[in-house]
Amino acid sequence: METAQFGIFAHGGLNLHTANFQTLPDVPSCCPHYGNGDGLGWGFGAFYDFFPRSPFSLQIRIGYSSLNAILKTDEFTTVQDLTGSAVPGEFEYSVQASFGMLGLTPLLTYRLSSQATVLAGPTVGWIPSNSVTEMESLIQPATYGTFSNGLRTRNVFSGARADVSKLYLGACAGVQYRVPLNPSNTLFALPEIFGTLGATPIIRGMNWRANSIMGGVSIEYRMFAPLPPPPPPPPPPPPPPPVVVSSPAKPKPPVLTATLAAVTLDSAGAQQPLKEIVIEDYIRTQYRPLLNYIFFDSGSAQIPSRYHRVSRSKSSSYDFKKFNSYETLPLYYEILNIVGSRMQEYPQAKLTIVGCDGDAGDPRSLASERADVVFQYLRNVWGVDPNRMRKEARGLPEKASNADDSDGIVENRRAEIYSNDPRILEPIFTTDTAHVPKPPLVRLVPGGMAQAGLTHWNIARSEGAERLEPFSGKGALVPHLDWDLNKESEALLGSLDTIHAVLEVEDRAGQHVNSNPVTIPVKHFTLLDKHRIGSTDTVVSRYSLILFDFDRSDLGEENRHIADFVKARISAKSKVRILGYTDRMGSDEYNQKLSEERARATQQYIGVWDADVRGLGRSSLLYDNNLPEGRFYSRTVTVVVTTPTAR
Coil, strand or helix: which one is 350? Predict the structure, then answer.
């Protein structure tokens, strides 16, 4: 019987700080915003278990740990070089913090088995020491340039902070696995992992909290009371009489096996073993056009719910920074708010709103109502002076889609927005981080034998603790299934963890079999990784030309303006791809030709003759072509400029 249970522990791991502030109190800084940060941490201490004989127990831990972390923010801007010309610049803002904490953690423990234990409880700590350094550094240009102080750093603060919270409160949870170290089961090693979530700010009055994930080992010693002698064994029972049972031999079940392999394709299209997936981060700039049309349902003058609208009270706090994370169509659904905000910014600009009822006859009241509902939203929510807006109504738009096609009929039910100031409808320029998978294609190859034939099969996929959408089917297995990672969201690619897959099959005899599990490691090569090793980074700029009119390939005035913008940003080191697209309307042959003409017209205008120029026709539809805006945004040319930048 156990009488006592105690020991020591040592941990190491990762501190994960969450923050939302601009600078430390009383420290000058130009930093736009500090977000999350991380750093290596360690800890050690001792523990004692109460009630060790029960599945539930109370464990008290006392220890010392570090809460170190680095918070960094990069700002991309424009600076002047030695000749006075504007060149790309990058400022790095950093806070390097070191905190030591003496903590007391009471944990409620539960033994899942004789080896596994889960623990959870609050943690209370006292922070007796700290050291904080904040500075701003000039990163780009890398070889020249200083701040006004003659240095490449400024606004430097380093030292202990008097406003650091002495009291730390948080919640802690973990899991242990017990391994005996001696035959008498009195000494154990417990590999363990703990997560701590901070509840109090590190610096008083600031949104800055310290969390951690720590792994390590505890050494536990158990004391036992002497055991009483065992009772004598009972006499053995008499042997049972022999029983002879004869039964007919059962037929063997039909053979059912399953296998699964993961491969990828090389440049020649041949299958190669897939050892791992690398997600590499790149700085991505995008120049995306605004479609100046609002589409309406048949017979309706109500703005559809997919267009985002705000209240008058919230229009003053409308935040354009969120556009960095927006995909193309969600960005387009902000068109009414973008126009309203820009009309406030440029008070001399004027608008013309043209309502179209979609018929070839004279303008009807429906066209006027569609123009008026856009007019009223801009006036009532964004406060645009009615004298700055003019309404028109007509049957078909001036540049109408094919009225003999069902898709064209839907596209002609719209309100059009025009301005005498091109800044009102100019494209949106954003900068964010792109996650590029290498290789981009995962091919899953199922196999096996089913003598009775299959009824259905399923390939279950998961990453980490999250389940991904499965592949499934009925009857015989398919030769292979391709998973195109380029079509996954940026959010999924940025968080993708080790991928697991297994083939599950059922035959007509009702048998179930699972294949061998397939594990695909995923590594992330982030911008921070590149910065730490000083590697050459790459800026991927993606420019979408103003959308081409239906069945047209010539560059209008708006497209030439964007093409001039693109030309100015192509250097001698840049690699350029020009990709032409169409919507689903028309034949495959015609759309292939039209997409090639759009791509070639763009290449000829920007004058990059060694570019990779391709027309993809309707084989690669960029957006949902069941929506009129999806078809318009598919009538485009995308120019991708990849430029290496030395750190």
Answer: coil
Percent of the chain with pLDDT over 90: 45
Contact 136, 149 (CB under 8 A): no
Say whether 544 sits in a helix, a strand or coil: strand
Count Cα atoms within 13 angstroms, Cβ side, for 450: 25
Give the tens place of pLDDT for each residue, 78-113.
887 777 788 888 999 999 999 999 999 999 999 898
How far is residue 621's CA from residue 303's CA, in Å, rounded to a whole number? 26
Interatomic CA distance for residues 55 and 410, integer angstroms: 67
* Count of helices and strands (H, E) across the chain: 10, 31
One-letter amino acid for residue 438 of the chain: K
Secondary structure class of 312 (helix, strand, coil): helix
What CA–CA distance (Å, rounded) separates 420 from 606?
Answer: 26
Contact 597, 615 (CB under 8 A): yes
Phi-psi region of 602 (alpha: psi -120 to 50; beta: other; left: phi over 0): alpha
* Cis previous bond, 141, omega within 30: yes
Query: What digits encode the pLDDT tens for the residues 434-449?
Result: 788 888 889 999 999 9
User: Which pairs count as long-range contacts for 367-373, CB under 8 Å and 24+ apart, including other chains?
Assistant: 367/393, 367/394, 367/395, 368/393, 369/301, 370/294, 370/296, 370/301, 370/414, 370/415, 371/415, 372/301, 373/301, 373/302, 373/303, 373/415
The two structure tokens encoding residue 68: 């170190």
Tell me the helix, strand and coil percentages in the chain, rounded to 5.
15, 45, 40
Indicate the residue type of 76. F
Structure tokens at 60: 């008290």
Give yes or no for residue 541 having a pLDDT over 70: yes
Give the position of tokens 């309706």: 300
DSSP lists the bridge partners of residue 501 as 461, 518
How many other C-beta atoms can be found within 10 angstroms of the C-beta atom of residue 129? 11
In the predicted model, what is the mean pLDDT of residues 333-343? 95
CA dist 341 and 318 (Å) reads: 8
On whether the pTM is more than 0.85, the answer is no
Read off the pLDDT of residues 21-31 as tens digits, 9 standing for 90 and up: 988 888 888 88
337 conformational bin, left if phi > 0, alpha if psi -120 to 50, beta if neither: alpha
What is the residue-averaged pLDDT of the chain? 87
